[in-house]
Design brief:
2 domains, single chain, Nucleoside Triphosphate Pyrophosphohydrolase, globular, binds zinc ion, 11 strands, 194 residues, Ubiquitin Ligase Nedd4, Chain: W, alpha+beta
Length: 194
């Protein structure tokens, strides 16, 4: 007999309903000595802290063209994105950026400098994009991408980009490149839910 299957798998909500330590229901309140509400277990005492998640990605280029991937997953299915995804436990942000690039596009890259640091408080995330030089033109998109390809500046599908962090990173990259390629790290905050 196999285990019962859910209708679909989905990322669990941030708010906990039950304690991951003992399985008791949790309550939402401010712990002693704290200044904001947390999910507290009144049975075993565990405090379930929630903190922003880090999204790591790259601006990969090959002979001046920019690599974009067409998403095969929600949210923003069938729109174009720079390769990026959630940083995993136990890796550095640079390792995560390189891993996501390989997983989503098949591109092997030499990582460059950290390029954008984007706070997105409304979705509780921080996005980091590194510059990256592809080691060759070969692409082999994984299951999270419908397609991966390199774009000339004039071909970039601005109306079909997945996220504002992607659009603003691309805009800054192209601006810096037009000014002669003196790339510096940009740090800014976005308020939109995209
Ligand atoms: Zn508990």
């Amino acid at each position: 007999m196999s285990a019962p299957q859910p209708p679909a798998y989905f990322p669990a909500p941030r708010r906990a309903r039950f304690c991951s330590q003992c399985g008791s229901p949790v309550s939402r309140r401010v712990p002693d000595g704290d200044n904001r509400e947390r999910d507290l277990c009144d049975h075993c005492g565990a405090i379930h802290y929630q903190n922003p998640r880090v999204v790591v990605g790259t601006v990969p280029t090959w002979q001046g063209r920019i690599l974009l991937c067409r998403r095969a997953i929600e949210p923003r299915y069938d729109t174009w994105t720079l390769p990026a995804g959630f940083m995993e436990l136990g890796e550095s942000s640079a390792q995560g950026a390189e891993r996501e690039t390989l997983e989503e596009s098949g591109a092997r890259v030499a990582l460059g400098q950290l390029y954008t640091v984007i706070d997105v408080p409304q979705v509780e995330q921080v996005h980091l994009f590194y510059l990256a030089e592809a080691l060759g033109p070969a692409l082999d998109p994984g299951p999270e991408s419908l397609e991966a390809r390199y774009f000339d500046e004039a071909e970039i599908p601005w109306d079909d980009l997945s996220f504002r962090t992607v659009a603003t990173t691309l805009q800054r990259y192209l601006d810096d490149r037009r000014r002669g390629g003196a790339f510096q790290t940009h740090h800014y905050t976005l308020d939109s839910r995209r």
